[in-house]
Design goal:
single chain, 474 residues, alpha/beta, Rossmann fold, 9-stranded mixed β-sheet, 6-stranded parallel β-sheet, 19 helices, binds adenosine-5'-diphosphate, binds alpha-D-glucopyranose
C-alpha cells in the first residue's frame, strides 16, 4: 500500500495548529503498520533549513494555464518518513502559512506540483490522502485526470476533514486562471456564487474521513455542517471518523526536551517543578498549592472564548491562576491582555505562537480549559491527559470522544465535561474540578486515570490502513 499524504503544514517543518501535528505524525505511524507512506508539503520560509537532507529535483515541471512553471523539491527524513517539500518561493517564502489574498492560487499550485512530483517519483500511489480545503484542488484534478492518464488510473483519493469551518473560498472567476476551466472541473467548486475548495474536495474525493467519530455525525447536521451537511449526509456511506493519536515521541512528560523536570504516572514529583517553572515564566507568585487553569489555542470563536470572557470575573473569584497562550482574533487578544492588566498577580498572558511554552504549560498547569463550540478532534486535551493536567471541556466532537467525566462514587473518569454551550454550565464544571483539586487523593486519582490512557497513533494508523484498503477498492 503506497500512500502519498498532501498537507499544507506538518511538524517539524511548519505548524499553525493541530493539522501540523497530525500530518507530521501520521506518515511515521503508517510506516510502523507496513504502509509505504510519504509526505508532500510546501517549503515555507519558517521551515528550518537544517531539517532538509538534499535537493532531489531542481526542474519539476508544473502544468499551469499561463505556461509550464518550474519548482524544485527537497527531501527530508525529519518526520520519520520521506517528506518532499515543494520549493516555489513566489508562493511559499512568506511570513506565515496562510492568510494571503492568493491562498487559493498558492495551494492550487501546490496540488499541481505535488501531482507532478508523484509522477516523477513513481511508482503510482494507491492512495493520495488529502487534508482540508487545500486538498480540494488535487481531489478535483485527480478525479478528472485519472480517466486520461495511465499513471493515475488506479489511484484513489481520501479527503480528511480537520475543520469544516475553513472553506478556502475565492472568486470563481479565478478558476480559469488555476486551470479549472472545463465544466467538470468548475462545477464541484461552486457554492452560492463563490468557489469553495473544500466543497470540491468533499464532492470529488473517493472517500471522506474526519478526526473523531462524534464530529463525523455532527457535520451531517445544519448546526455543525457550515452549509455542507447535505453533501456529507448524501455521502455518509463514504464518511468515517478516526480519532487522532498523540505522538508520544514529542508529547511525553518523561522525555520532553522543553521541561524543567520530568515525570510519569509512577512519580509526579517533577510536575511540581514544572509548575514552579511555569509560574516564574509568567511572573506570577510562586504559590505552588494554588491551582493553575490554562488555555493554549488559536484565538478563534470555535474555541469557546466567548464563554471564557463571559465567565472571567467568576473564574478569577475562585482564586485560581489563569494562564493563556495564543494568538488570533484581535478581540480575544485584547481581552486576555485586559484581564492580565486587571489582575497581574493572578493572570498570565502570552500573545503569539511558542512551541516550547506550549509544552511547559501542559506540564505545569493543573487544569486545561477547552470549552469549544465545536471541535473536530482537539489535541491539547489529549496532551493534557498525558501530562497529568486535568481537562475541563465541552462535550463536542473529539472532546466528547476522548474525555470521560469524573465520577466520584466510582472513581472513574479523567476530566470534566459539560454539555450546553453556556458560561454557567462551564463554571459549574470548573467549580467541580477545583473542589476535587482541594482533595489531593481524589485529584491524583483523576490525574492517573488520564495519564494511563493510551492515545498513541498505533490504533489510528491501523484504522487508516483499513480505510485505505476500502478506498482502493472503490
Ligand atoms: P486546532 O487544530 O483547532 O488549532 P488542536 O487542539 O487540534 O486545535 O491543535 C492545536 C495545536 O496547536 C496543539 O499542538 C497546540 O499546542 C498548538 N498551539 C495552538 N496555539 C499555539 C500557540 N499560540 N503556541 C504554540 N502552540 C500552539
Ligand atoms: C483542526 C481541528 C482540531 C483537530 C485538528 C487536527 O484544526 O480544529 O480539532 O484536532 O484539526 O485534526
Amino acid at each position: 500500500m503506497r500512500v502519498a499524504i498532501l498537507s499544507s503544514e506538518a511538524v517539524p517543518f511548519a505548524k499553525t495548529g493541530g493539522l501540523g501535528d497530525v500530518a507530521g505524525a501520521l506518515p511515521k505511524a503508517l510506516r510502523s503498520v507496513g504502509v509505504d507512506s510519504l509526505l508532500v508539503l510546501p517549503l515555507f520560509e519558517q521551515t528550518e533549513r537544517k531539517l532538509l537532507r538534499a535537493q532531489v529535483i531542481d526542474n519539476l515541471e508544473v502544468e499551469w494555464p499561463s505556461g509550464t512553471r518550474r519548482a524544485s523539491v527537497w527531501l527530508s527524513d525529519a518526520a520519520g518518513a520521506p517528506a518532499f517539500l515543494i520549493d516555489a518561493p513566489e508562493y511559499f517564502a512568506r511570513s506565515s502559512v496562510y492568510g494571503f489574498g492568493d491562498d487559493h492560487e498558492r495551494f492550487a499550485f501546490f496540488c499541481r506540483a505535488a501531482l507532478a512530483l508523484l509522477k516523477r517519483l513513481g511508482p503510482t500511489p494507491d492512495i493520495v490522502h488529502l487534508n482540508d480545503w487545500p486538498g480540494g484542488f488535487a481531489a478535483t484534478e485527480l478525479r478528472v485526470r485519472r480517466a486520461l492518464d495511465p499513471f493515475y488510473h488506479r489511484t484513489r483519493t481520501l479527503f480528511s476533514i480537520h475543520n469544516l469551518a475553513y472553506h478556502g473560498s475565492f472568486d470563481p472567476r479565478d478558476l480559469d486562471r488555476l486551470g479549472f476551466n472545463t465544466p467538470e472541473r468548475r462545477e464541484p467548486f461552486m457554492m452560492e456564487g463563490a468557489a469553495s475548495a473544500l466543497k470540491a474536495g468533499l464532492m470529488m474525493s473517493d472517500m471522506l474521513s474526519t478526526v473523531s467519530h462524534r464530529y463525523s455525525l455532527e457535520i451531517q447536521t445544519p448546526e455543525f455542517g457550515h452549509g455542507l451537511e447535505w453533501i456529507l449526509r448524501a455521502r455518509r456511506d463514504r464518511l468515517v471518523g478516526i480519532t487522532n493519536g498523540v505522538d508520544y515521541d514529542v508529547w511525553n512528560p518523561e522525555t520532553d526536551q522543553y521541561l524543567a523536570a520530568h515525570f510519569n504516572a509512577d512519580n509526579l514529583e517533577g510536575k511540581r517543578m514544572c509548575k514552579l517553572d511555569l509560574l516564574r515564566r509568567y511572573n506570577l507568585p510562586e504559590e505552588l498549592d494554588r491551582p493553575i487553569i490554562a488555555s493554549i489555542s488559536r484565538l478563534t470563536g470555535q474555541k469557546g472564548f466567548d464563554l471564557i470572557r463571559e465567565a472571567a470575573a467568576q473564574i478569577l473569584m475562585t482564586g485560581a491562576f489563569f494562564i493563556s497562550l495564543g494568538s488570533g482574533a484581535r478581540e480575544y487578544e485584547d481581552f486576555f491582555q485586559a484581564l492580565r492588566d486587571h489582575a497581574p498577580r493572578q493572570v498570565g498572558t502570552y500573545r503569539g505562537f511558542n512551541e516550547p511554552l506550549s509544552h511547559q504549560i501542559e506540564a505545569g498547569a493543573d487544569i486545561f480549559l477547552m470549552p469549544s463550540q465545536f471541535e473536530p478532534c482537539g489535541l491539547n486535551q489529549m496532551y493534557s491527559l498525558r501530562y497529568g493536567t486535568v481537562p475541563v471541556v465541552r462535550a463536542t466532537g473529539g472532546l466528547d470522544d476522548t474525555v470521560e467525566d469524573f465520577d466520584r462514587s466510582r472513581g472513574t473518569g479523567n476530566g470534566f465535561k459539560f454539555g450546553p454551550y453556556s458560561a454557567p454550565a462551564m463554571l459549574e464544571k470548573i467549580s467541580e474540578a477545583l473542589y476535587c483539586y482541594g482533595e489531593p487523593e481524589v485529584w491524583k486519582q483523576i490525574q492517573l486515570n488520564g495519564m494511563r490512557v493510551d492515545n498513541s497513533w498505533q490504533a489510528a494508523a491501523q484504522k487508516y490502513l483499513e480505510l485505505y484498503r476500502t478506498t482502493a477498492q472503490t
